[in-house]
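Morning run. Coffee first, then this:
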Amino acid sequence: MFDGQDVPKLIQGAFVISDDSTGSSPPTMPVFLMLARASAPLLAVAVCASLASGVCSVLLVATINTALAETSRKVSELALQFAALAILAMLARTLAGVLFTRLSQSTLANLRQHISRAVANASYRGVQEIGPARIQSLLTEDTGHISTFFVGIPILLMNAVTVIGCFAYLAVLSWKIFLMALVVAVLGSAVYHFSHVRVLKHLRAASRKQDELFSHFGALFHGAKELKLNRARAETFISQELGGAVETVRRHRVSGLSLYSLAASWGHFLFFAFIGLTLFLFADLASGDSRVATGYAIVFLYLMTPLEVLLNNIPVMNVARVSAQRIEEVMRKMSNAEAIAVERTPQERVTVELDAVTHSYYHEREDDIFRIGPVSLSFPPGQVTFLVGGNGSGKTTLAKLLVGLYVPEHGRVLLNGEITTDANRDAYRQQFSAVFADFHLFQALLGMSDAGLDARANRMLERLHLNHKVTVHEGAFSTRDLSQGQRKRLALLVACLEDRPFIVFDEWAADQDPVFKEVFYREIVPDLKARGKTVLVISHDDRYFPLADRLIRMEEGRIVEVSLSHSLTAKGARYGV
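And here it is:
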C-alpha cells in the first residue's frame, strides 16, 4: 500500500547542492527549496492544481453513488454537478501535468549545471578520486531519475488525495465498515514496508554497480583498438567484465521491482477480498442501507486504479531517492574551500617559488606511498627550465604542484612573494598555461574572444604546418580529427594564444617528428622566452638540453641536480648544439 510519508521525505532534503555560482564553499540547500525559490509561483499553482484534480475525483465518485439512489428529478440536477466536476478535474489535471513537466525539465537542467559547476570548481585531486564514470552516471542516469520523479509528482498528489478522500467518504457512509477497511490498509502497508526496505537495498546495489558499468562503456570506446587486435580479449571483456556488470544491475533491479509487484498484487487481493466480504458476508453492517453497500463497492473498485498508480510510482520515487543520495555524496566530496578568482586577467611577468614543498600519493608500480620533495625552487620570468628524469620520478606531479592543480601537504608556494592559500589559489592558477601528456583539446578557443583571435590562430597554424588541415573560424577549430601529434600542436597553439606568463610543456615533443621537434625547441620555446614568458619543459630529448637556461634532474621524487646554462653549454658540444 502507499506510504504517504514518502513524498515529503524525498522532496524535502533528499539531497543538497550548491546554490552559489562562484563555487567558493557555499552553504548547501535542499533541492526542493532551490526549486521553490526559483519557481515559487509556478510550483504553488502546480501543487494546487494537482490537489484540485484529486478532490474533484473524489467528489465525482460521491456524486455517482448518490445518483444511483436518487429520483430522476434529482439525477438531472446531479448530472450538471457531475459534468462540472469532470471538466474541472480534466482542466486541473492538464494544468498540473504541464506545469510539473516544465518544473521537471528545469530541475534536470539546473541539476546538471550545478553538478558540472561543482566538478569544474572542485579540487583536481577530488575529481580524480571520484572518477569520470561516476560523474557521467550522475549527469545522465541520476539526474534523469530525479527529473522523472518530478514529472510524476502531480500523479502522486492527485491519486494520494483521491485515496485519502475516498477513505474519508467511506467513514461517512459507515464507520464500522471503515474500520474494517483500515485493517485491510494496515495489512497492505505492512507488506509494502517489508518490501520497501529490501527494495532500497537492491536499488542502491544496482546504482553502485552502475558506476562500474559506465567505466566499461568508456573502455568499449577508448580500448577499441586493443579489442579489435585481440578477439579473445574482446570476448572476455564483453561477456565477463561488461556483461557481468550489466547482469548485476539487471538482477538487482529485477529483484527490487519484482518485490513491488508482489506488494501491489497483495494489495489488489486484499481489496477484492474486502469487497466480497462487505457485499456477501457483512452486509448487515450497512444497517440495511443498499446505498452504503453499493457505495463501498463502487469506492473500492474506483480506488483500484489510484492505488495501482501510486504503487507503480513508488519504485520511481525510491530510484530518485537513491539517485539523490548519490548526488549528495559526490557533491559533499567535491565541496571546495577555495575562492574562485573574480579577476582572471593574468599578470605580465611572474616569479614562482616552491619553498620546501612536499606531496604524497599512492604509486601503483611500487605498491607504496610515493613522496615528492621537499622541493625548493624559484622560477624567475623569462627563464627556460628543463625538468628531466626517469619515468615515475615525479616530474609531472611536480608540474601539477607548480601550476596549482595539487595542493602541497607541507611547504609554501609563492607568486611574486605572496603565499598561495585557498583564498587566492584559483587566481594563482590563472597565471599558467599547460599542455600535459593527457591533455584535452576543446572544440573552441574558450575564454579568448579578442577581435584578432582568428587571424593570430591561423598564422600560427601555418607555422605549425597545420593550415592545410585545420582553420580557426569564429574562435573554433574546423576539425579535431587529427593524429595525436597534430592534436598536440593544436594544444600548443591554445597555450600560446592564452598568453599566460608561465607555460608548462609535459613531454610535448614525444609525439612529434624530428622536424617539429626542431621547430619546438629552436623556435617556439626561444620565442616565448623572448616575450618574457617563464617556460618549464619536461623532456627526455637530451640533445636539446643545452638550449635551456637551467636543467633540473629528478629521481624518486627528489631534486638531485640543478645545472645552469653555462655548464649546459659546455656539455652541449657532444650533441652538436
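The chain has two domains: 6-333, 352-575. Good start to the day.
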